[in-house]
Automatic annotation (TrEMBL):
Keywords, comma-separated and alphabetical: Nucleotidyltransferase, RNA-directed DNA polymerase, Transferase
Taxonomic lineage from the root: Eukaryota, Metazoa, Ecdysozoa, Arthropoda, Chelicerata
UniProt domain Endonuclease/exonuclease/phosphatase: residue ranges: 39-111
Name the record gives this protein: RNA-directed DNA polymerase from mobile element jockey
InterPro entries named among the record's database cross-references: Endo/exonu/phosph_ase_sf, Endo/exonuclease/phosphatase
Organism this protein belongs to: Caerostris extrusa (Bark spider)
Pfam families, per database record: Exo_endo_phos_2
GO MF: RNA-directed DNA polymerase activity
Length: 121
């Protein structure tokens, strides 16, 4: 197991509500800022050896924590939407899940780019 981590300043009010997961590794924090709904930030790693169809069950468990969520991840999910040369089963499953749950996928357009928004619709 590789593990994940999230760093935060100690003055942010947060707690770590990570559910029991079967197919992915994750660390989550819930930021509870004044006058705002809680926001979950999740650091996720999907091992190459995990089931390419069942990993979304764990994503759903994390999504059930709150309605506002940011997932930062190495999904090991290759798809042309994220500028990979080929579509793989996990990439197809992630794109399907993102479309079903109205999630935006943000990925580099090339390995040298920092971040660009990709809307897979």
């Amino acid at each position: 197991m590789g593990g994940t981590a999230i760093f935060t300043k100690s003055h942010f009010p947060f707690h770590t509500p990570t559910p029991l997961l079967q197919h992915i590794e994750a660390a989550t924090i819930s930021l509870n800022l004044p006058n705002l709904d809680p926001i979950i930030i999740a650091s996720i790693y999907v091992p190459v050896t995990s089931d390419p169809l069942l990993f979304t069950l764990d994503l759903e468990s994390i999504m059930q924590l709150v309605s506002n969520i940011i997932m930062c991840s190495d999904f090991n999910a290759y798809h042309q939407v994220s500028k990979c040369s080929k579509n793989r089963q996990r990439g197809n499953q992630l794109l399907k899940y993102a479309n079903q749950t109205d999630l935006d996928i943000i990925a580099p357009t090339t390995p040298q780019d920092l971040v660009t928004t990709q809307r897979p619709r």
